[in-house]
Amino acid sequence: MSVPQDQLEATQVALVVHIALTQAEPGCLSFEVWPSAENPLIFHVKEAFIDGEAFADHQARAGASPWGQLTQGFAREYQTSGLDLSASADETFMHQALQLADHASEAGEVPVGAVLVRDGQVMGQGFNQPISGLDPTAHAEIIALRQAAQLHNNYRLPGSTLYVTIEPCLMCVGALIHARVARVVFGALEPKAGAVLSHPCLESYPSNHRFAVTPGVLGEICGQRMSRFFAARR
Fold this sequence. Notes:
This protein has seven helices and seven strands; from the N terminus they run H-E-E-H-H-H-E-E-H-E-H-E-E-H. By secondary structure, the protein is α/β, with parallel strands linked by helices. The strands form two sheets. A five-stranded mixed β-sheet has the order 4-3-5-6-7. The two termini are 34 Å apart.
C-alpha cells in the first residue's frame, strides 16, 4: 500500500486501531503491517484468515470503517495465495478453541479455550473460568471433558482429540489420561506450568495410558492472545 506524504501521520494513527480490530476478528489467523525499509510511504500487509467467508467479513468491516474511508484512494498491489485452500482440521478446531479463549478474556479470565472432538464432531468445549466459577479446577480442558462425558454418558472418551490453545497443566494432563483421550493438540507452550512438553513430569509416571501430542498449531496466534491479555493487566 502506498501512502501519500500528506496522509502519512493520519495513516499511522489509524493503523493502530485497524490492526487491533482486525486481530480481534473471530476469523483472523494473523495480521501484520510494517513500513518498507526502502520507502517509509510504502506499507506491507500480511494477513491470513480461517476461510474465504472470514476474509470477506473482514473486507466488509474494514471497508466501512474509518480506516477504509481514509485509505480507499491509496494505491495498492496485491499478492494472494491459499485463498482457495481449506484450513486443516487441526487449524479449524484450534480456531474454535481460540474463539472460546476470547470469551474467557472478555470475562477477565486467562484466555484459554478447549474443544474435544471425535470423528470430526465436537463432543465438548470450554474456556477458563476458575475465577467466575469459584472453582480452581475449572480450566478449559476440564470443562470440555466434563461436558463431553455428560453428553456421552461415559467418563471414558477414547478416540477423542483435545484442541487447547495453551499447553495443559499437570491437573489437566491427569484428567486427559483418566478420560483416555487419544490425542492432544495445543497451540502455545506454557513454560512455567505446561506439563506436556515444557515439564514432561509424567514420562516416568506409571500410567496405563498415553496420548499422542501435536504442539504448535496456530501457536503464535495462541501465544499472542496470552501476551495481549497480560500486557493489558499490567
